[in-house]
Design goal:
Layout lengths: L7 H7 L1 E3 L7 E3 L1 H6 L5 H4 L5 E4 L2 E4 L9 H5 L5 E4 L7 E3 L4
Antiparallel strand pairs: 1-6, 2-5, 3-4
């Protein structure tokens, strides 16, 4: 058996994500995020959904892998709500 290392882009594109257009499953308090100096969410999100533009933190939940890493590293309470998407919505992993 041969094991081949794939890129993260390839692996993420194997997943199927059904976006809940009506309800974000992660909600940020941008005022708290603005006061956070470290902004670890920018570094840990495997889908790179947190971005910083002109000093303001932006988040696009549409490609979220629901790993919860951002919630675990948010120390200043910037993530005011984190839950899994409603039934049948969100990410489906095709290869584990």
């Amino acid at each position: 058996m041969t094991v081949k290392k794939e890129t993260i882009e390839y692996l993420i594109n194997l997943d199927r994500i059904k976006v809940d257009e009506k309800q974000a499953h992660i909600v940020l308090d941008k005022e708290k995020c603005a006061k956070c100096n470290d902004k670890p969410c920018l570094l840990v999100c495997p889908a790179v959904l947190y971005t910083l533009e002109k000093g303001e933190l932006h988040f696009d939940y549409a490609g979220c892998l629901e790993c919860g890493t951002c919630r675990a590293v948010c120390k200043n309470g910037g993530i005011v709500e984190w839950r899994y998407p409603r039934g049948s919505l969100g990410v489906s992993y095709r290869q584990g």
